[in-house]
Specification:
Keywords: Membrane, Transmembrane, Transmembrane helix
Radius of gyration: 18 Å
Organism: Pseudoalteromonas tunicata D2
Shape: elongated
Oligomer: single chain
Helix content: over 70%
Strand content: under 5%
Number of domains: 1
CATH class: Mainly Alpha
GO molecular function, one term: sodium:proton antiporter activity
InterPro entries: PhaG_MnhG_YufB
Protein name: Na+/H+ antiporter subunit G
Order of helices and strands: HHHH
Largest sheet: none
Length: 111
């Protein structure tokens, strides 16, 4: 195997592991506020690993840098935190209950 194939394999495994961890966190966390951390943090990092693996693979097998994966990465890294922020603001606005003992919930301003 060539070195870039090992690199692509390792990046795919790491990315897949982060996606799996984020998905498990989405399913197992007790309330909405905690559940949002899985997709916005771990899954975004996992998708970045998969996209970097795709960039390395297509850059080595074809001529030039793969622009599609770069654009997807930029779009993902910009939209995931913004959508997470908007979901949290909507949950606060609708006064979704948080699990007892969640830190920071007592500092939220009432409208």
């Amino acid at each position: 195997m060539l070195v870039y194939e090992w690199l692509v394999s390792i990046l795919l495994l790491i990315g897949g592991a982060f996606i799996l961890i984020g998905s498990i966190g989405l399913n197992k966390m007790p309330d909405f506020f905690m559940r949002l951390h899985g997709p916005t943090k771990a899954t975004t990092l996992g998708m970045a690993g998969v996209l970097i693996a795709a960039m390395v693979y297509f850059s080595m097998t074809k001529d030039g840098i793969s622009v599609k994966e770069i654009l997807i990465s930029i779009f993902l890294l910009i939209t995931a935190p913004i959508s997470g922020y908007m979901l949290i603001k909507a949950a606060i606005h609708h006064k979704l209950p948080a699990k007892d003992g969640t830190k920071g919930m007592d500092n939220i301003e009432e409208d």
